[in-house]
Write a sequence for this structure.
């Protein structure tokens, strides 16, 4: 019998709203409130990304550097992460996502979160939802063990998300043939994982993904109501 996995994206799939910029603002307000005056520069970097002058990894690095800083002691950052996760779980989780996670767990599926968000806080949110397996964008450590504004490896997005899920399966000693995968996501950037999965689910999806899901015969769910 195949092992059953239910893999969930996080932002706008489990959560109502995206979490990256709120995390940066939350961290800045607690670690160095003066950095909030740099928010307009973060908007400029977002514009640079929209104009394809920088990629998504660089966008994350620039905005992290602006609002959190260059190198942070993990001990200092930890209470910020925990308070942010508490806030997200208290007010930013869709009831439909909670119900789906509970149903998948009751059906014997292993729950996995696969998100482009930083593991820094995605892991803390997942823990509160009872999700032990997290595949996410990693942050780099400097020689002193401090967290720096650099993405370690790949940003867990698009094709890279699929590659990171496949690498996780290998680390867990699971072959693709030995698992049955249900995958939930809201965004067309994850369509490569939808196509690869056994049960693709377009969840709280934007128009492009809904159109693709209908064309491919995928299940479409709306947890936002």
């Amino acid at each position: 019998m195949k092992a059953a996995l239910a893999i969930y994206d996080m932002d706008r799939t489990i959560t109502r709203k995206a979490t990256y910029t709120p995390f940066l603002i939350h961290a800045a307000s607690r670690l160095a409130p003066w950095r909030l005056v740099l928010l307009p520069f973060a908007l400029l970097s977002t514009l640079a990304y929209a104009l394809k002058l920088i990629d998504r990894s660089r966008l994350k690095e620039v905005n992290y550097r602006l609002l959190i800083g260059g190198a942070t002691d993990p001990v200092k950052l930890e209470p910020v992460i925990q308070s942010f996760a508490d806030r997200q779980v208290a007010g930013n989780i869709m009831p439909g996502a909670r119900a789906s996670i509970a149903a998948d767990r009751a059906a014997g599926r292993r729950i996995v979160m696969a998100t482009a968000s930083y593991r820094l806080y995605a892991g803390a949110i997942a823990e509160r939802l009872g999700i032990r397996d997290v595949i996410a964008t990693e942050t780099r450590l400097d020689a002193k063990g401090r967290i720096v504004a650099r993405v370690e490896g790949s940003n867990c997005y698009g094709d890279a998300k699929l590659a990171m899920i496949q690498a996780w399966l290998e680390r867990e000693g699971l072959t693709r043939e030995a698992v049955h995968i249900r995958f939930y996501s809201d965004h067309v950037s994850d369509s490569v994982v939808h196509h690869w999965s056994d049960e693709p689910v377009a969840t709280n999806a934007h128009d492009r993904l809904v159109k693709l899901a209908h064309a491919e015969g995928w299940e479409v769910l709306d947890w936002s109501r």
